[in-house]
Design a protein that fits this description.
mainly alpha; Phosphate-specific transport system accessory protein PhoU (chains A, B); homodimer; PhoU-like_sf (chains A, B); Methane Monooxygenase Hydroxylase, Chain G, domain 1; phosphate transport (chains A, B); 7 helices; PhoU_dom (chains A, B); cytoplasm (chains A, B)
Amino acid sequence: MRDAFHEDLDKISDSLVEMTRLVGSAMSRATTALLDSDLGLAEGVIENDVQIDAIRDDIDEMAVQLIAQQQPVATDLRIVVTALHMASSLERMGDLAEHVAKVARLRYPHKAVPPQANATIVEMAQIAERLVAQAGSIIAAKDVDGAEALHADDDEMDRLHRDMFVLLVDEGWEGGTESAIDVTLLARYFERFADHAVSVARQVAYLVTGEWEHKRRVGAPA
Amino acid sequence: MRDAFHEDLDKISDSLVEMTRLVGSAMSRATTALLDSDLGLAEGVIENDVQIDAIRDDIDEMAVQLIAQQQPVATDLRIVVTALHMASSLERMGDLAEHVAKVARLRYPHKAVPPQANATIVEMAQIAERLVAQAGSIIAAKDVDGAEALHADDDEMDRLHRDMFVLLVDEGWEGGTESAIDVTLLARYFERFADHAVSVARQVAYLVTGEWEHKRRVGAPA
C-alpha cells in the first residue's frame, strides 16, 4: 500500500503528465497555425496558455500542501523540489508554443515561413512534439532510464537547427530579411522546447530516486 | 531577535543577491566581449556560468535544509518556493549572458554587431544591467514596492527591441542576413534578461509577504 506522501506525489506527477499533454497539443496547434496561416487557431493557443500556467500554480500549491501535511525528510523533500522545477520547465514550454502562435498571428494573412524553410520547420515541430510526448510517458511510467532514448531526437533537433541557419544565410534564400528573422526565432523556439522536454524527462531519474547529485550532471537548458 | 526560519531565509536571500551581482557582471562582460570582439573575455563568461549554476544548486539545498529543520507552515513554505523560482530565473539570466558571449566567440575575430546596430545594443545592455542591479537592491532591502520603479526601464527595453526589428528589415540595413540573424538573437537575449530581472524584482513582494495570490497576477516571462 502506498503511503500518504507517495499518494500526494502521484497527484503532482499526474499534473506534470497533464502539462506535457497540454504543451504538446499547444505546440502542435501553433505549428499548424503557423504553416496554414490560421488566425483562429493561433489565437486559441495564445488564449489557452493561461490554463497551462494555472496547472503550474496548482502544482506549486500541491507541493506546499504536501510538505506541510507530510513533513517529508531530506530525500523526499528533494523530490518535491525537483517536481517544482519540472513544472517550471513545462510552463516555459507552453510559453514557447505561444510564441510560435504569436509569429503566425503577426504575419497573418501571410505565411511567416517561406516554402524553402517549410520542411525543416515541419521536422522540428514533429521532433518537439515527439519529445514532449515521450517525456510524458517517462513521467507516467517513472522510467528512470527512459531519457537515454531521447538522445537521437535531441541530436537531430540540433542538426536541424544548424541546417536552418545554413539555409538562412545561403545566397539562395528567397525569404528576405523579415522572414529570416521570423525563422531564426521560430527555430530557436522549437529547439528550446525540445531542450526543456529532454530536461524534464531526465529529471524523472531523481524525481524517482531522489538522487540530487544526478541533477548537477544533467544541467538545465538555457 | 530574528527566529531561525528568518535567519535561514536571510541566507537564501543573500545568495539571491549574490546571483544578481554575478549575472549582472556576466552580462556586462559578455556585452564588452561582443562589442570589442574580445575572445578571452567571451570565454571567461562562458566558463564562469557554472559558478552561477552552482549557487542555484546551493539555494535548492539550503531550501531543503530550511524546510527539513524549521518545518515552516503554509505562508512561510510559499516564501521558500518563491525563493526557488527566483533562483531559477537568475540561473536563466546567467545562461542568457553566456549566449551573448557565445555569439561573440562564434564571430571572432569579426564583430557580430554591425556599426549600425551598436548604439541600440549598448542601450539594451545598459538597461539590462541596470534592471538586474535594481533587482538585487530590491531583494537586499526587502523592498515590496520597489519593482514598480522598474516599469520605465522595462518599457524602454521593449521599445528598443521593436526599434531593432525595424532597423533589421529596413532597406538601409548594411549587415547582411548573417548579421541580421545574430542581432535578432542578441536582441532577444537582452530583452529576456530584462524580463527575468523584472520578474525577480516583482517576486520580492511575495517573498516578503507570502501573498501567493500576488504571483498569479504578475506572471513570468517566457
